[in-house]
Amino acid sequence: MTSITIPATDNPAHHPDPTLQGSGRQWQGRFEAMASPCEILLENVNEAEAREALQFAARETWRMEHKFSRYVAGNPVDRINQSHGTPIHVDNEMALMLDYAAQCFELSDGRFDITSGVLRRAWKFDGGNHLPDRSETDALLRLVGWNRVQWEKPSLTLPDGMEIDFGGIGKEYAVDRILLDLNRILPEQASVLVNFGGDLACNGPRANGNAWVVGVEDHKKLSDSTETLSLRGGALATSGDSRRYLINNGVRYGHILDPRTGWPIPDAPHSVTVAAPTCTLAGMLATFAMLQGGEAEAFLQEQQVPFWVQRS
């Protein structure tokens, strides 16, 4: 059987220019990517350094979005999903993501599965009340299962009809990647915080030695943060159903699905926020906790990480 090699891609999409505000040695850069507001906070740098860092961060984030999104026709993920069982050769960055996805599948006992995105064909988490038939979700389960995928770097063989979706890990990876790159290109004394839609990481305290103050969103009041946290290093990530759910006969169904059943996790929290050394790890633990349902708190206590769970 022949194989296909996927070339690296540039980002052809147009994005509004990022904006930079601030003065002196404190700057706030903003742009849109990955369906989220993205924010770069920079201290102890001048305007030229801040502007260069922001432009780099925006370009690199857009590149990753274009590469790993399942919505971009012709990108590497789309070519994998349209491969119809033909082996695909991937580059090192894609291989890193696939290795991480495989690790998440194993560590979660199959609860975290990047092939489960096909279940969206049955579920519409738009605040409405429609529940799919079990026969519909059962039929889709035949297209779910990372254990059915053949992956040995650099070759991936995805069975015909199956898909991969990096939506559960892509944004956290981007946060860590951007922070790592900014640490490399900025002066050593720079203080940096990268925040992509509430998933964030910093390289240490602020320039004055104080902690960064960040808010934890209340799932009942999406425009306000009711609790603030102090972060002197590391990362935070949140998983939850604040914006994607449906309600049927008084029962709320969150958008996080169990790939083994095709249905939402019972007794899952509304949201879980986790602090960890990296955003990737924080995101993994937050999602794993959601997948534990009623045992979310017990799971996080075993991990010995700071966490915040909202249930009511």
Describe what you observe in this structure.
This protein has an 8-stranded antiparallel beta sheet. A 4-stranded mixed beta sheet has the order 1-5-7-6, with no helix packed on it. The protein has 312 residues and is of the alpha+beta class. The chain is globular. β15 and β16 form a beta hairpin. The chain has a domain of 106 residues. It contains 7 helices and 18 strands. The longest helix has 22 residues.
N- and C-termini, Cα separation: 53 Å
Quote the average pLDDT.
91
**Approximate shape:** globular
Question: In terms of structural class, how would the helical and strand content be classed?
Answer: alpha+beta
Which series of helices and strands comes N to C?
A: EEEEHHEHHEEHEEEEEEEEEEHHE
Q: Helical content, roughly?
A: 25-40%
Strand content: 25-35%
Tell me the radius of gyration: 20 Å
Major β-sheet annotation? 8 strands, antiparallel
Low-pLDDT residue intervals, each spanning 5 or more residues: 1-12
Give the number of helices.
7
